[in-house]
Specification:
Layout: H1 14-21, H2 25-34, E1 41-42, E2 48-49, H3 52-67, H4 72-111, H5 115-130
Antiparallel strand pairs: 1-2
Length: 134
């Protein structure tokens, strides 16, 4: 039986990782040379096998280089000098992105209401509070 749940997967191929980040496999190989923290396991015939830890390193590199626009030497130095703080900042940014997406979804859902529906909902809430929530 094939494991289709990606969370239970132990190793990812370079093509799978490239697809996750929408980058070329050659870029991942380049980053391996430039960032000593990125060391995927190499199986027979040099086939790269990325673990979850490797993917997190790629995610951090991607954030620094592609999203924040840092140079390769700058990102390498940032990861070398202060990896923990960089990782914490990255995690905060990711959480904020999730919160923003959630808020935008809520806004879209609320925009779908008409004024009449909102007034009816307010009336229902007022009625409930008058009845003591019973």
């Amino acid at each position: 039986m094939l494991n289709k749940d990606k969370d239970l997967k132990l190793y990812y191929s370079i093509s799978e990782v490239a697809q996750i980040f929408d980058v070329n496999e050659s870029l991942l190989r380049f980053w391996e040379k430039e960032f000593p923290q990125l060391e995927p396991k190499k199986g027979g015939r040099g086939v790269r096998q990325y673990r979850k830890e490797d993917i997190e390193v790629v995610r951090l590199i991607y954030h620094l280089v592609k999203e924040r626009g840092m140079t390769i030497p700058g990102a390498r130095q940032r990861m070398k000098d202060n990896k923990e703080a960089t990782l914490q900042n990255f995690e905060v940014v990711e959480k904020l992105k999730c919160i923003r997406a959630e808020l935008l979804n809520m806004k879209i859902a609320l925009d779908g209401f008409t004024y009449e529906q909102v007034e009816k909902l307010e009336d229902n809430v007022k009625e409930e509070s008058r009845n003591g929530g019973q």
